[in-house]
Amino acid sequence: EQCTSLGYFTGNPFLGRLEAASGDAVLYRDFQKGSLRIDLRDGTVEQRLLPARYFRSPNMKLILGTIPTSPPKLVVYDHASGEMISFPIPKGIPENGIAWLSNTKAAIALINEVMIYDHATSSIESIYETGVEKFSLKILAPPFRGHDFLLIEDSEKGIIHLRGDGSSQRINIQDLVGA
Q1: DSSP string across 5-53
Q2: Cβ proximity of 62 and 103 under 8 Å
Q3: Which ranges of the chain have pLDDT less than 70?
Q4: What's the rounded Cα separation, in Å, for the pair 160 and 50?
Q5: What's the pLDDT score for residue 121?
């Protein structure tokens, strides 16, 4: 059923540009108009300004990204409510710097610090710092769905098993492979 007068919401072109979805609305990227929030109940179309590069939650209801201000800001767009909130962060987020731990919690690897954003409490907190002011952190792989941990590479300390509560453990690869 068509819910708007825009008329081109059919098939793969529409699905390929879908940015977020909920039972009441979808967020669609139009090449000319930018991001559009479409209310599926009444057909209302509203333009949304989102960061150029962002990371969607696994359930497509939250979007995280940064705005290049001074200091940089973490932007959180909640698709269900249509609201956007922001938090100042000490550094910008490098490419592949966000790993979703759940539908509402994300780990954010900055240049020298890992932070956790928790949407349930609308809070952000630092859980790991390298102690050096240079690019030294990289998320090695996103966490397995439902697990509240991730593996990061610290260029000074090696591979770190980092849990959502802030506890960490250094992993010696030679011990794992039996070398």
Answers
A1: SS----HHHHHHTEEEE-SSEEEEEETTTEEEEEETTT--EEEE---SS
A2: yes
A3: 1-15, 95, 135, 141-148, 164-168, 171-179
A4: 32
A5: 93
Return the pLDDT at 76: 93
pTM: 0.74
Contact status, residue 108 vs residue 116, Cβ threshold 8 Å? yes
Contact 127, 113 (CB under 8 A): no
Predicted confidence at residue 177, as pLDDT, reads 52
Cα gap 116→35, rounded to integer Å = 26
Residue found by looking up tokens 């699905």 in the block: 15
The one-letter code for the residue type at 97 is: G
Whether the CB-CB separation of 140 and 151 falls below 8 Å is answered with yes
**Range 24-28, long-range pairs (CB < 8 A, 24+ positions):** 24/80, 25/79, 25/80, 25/82, 27/63, 27/79
Given this model, what pLDDT does residue 145 score?
A: 60
d(CA 100, CA 136): 20
Q: CA 142 to CA 135: how far, in whole Å?
A: 19
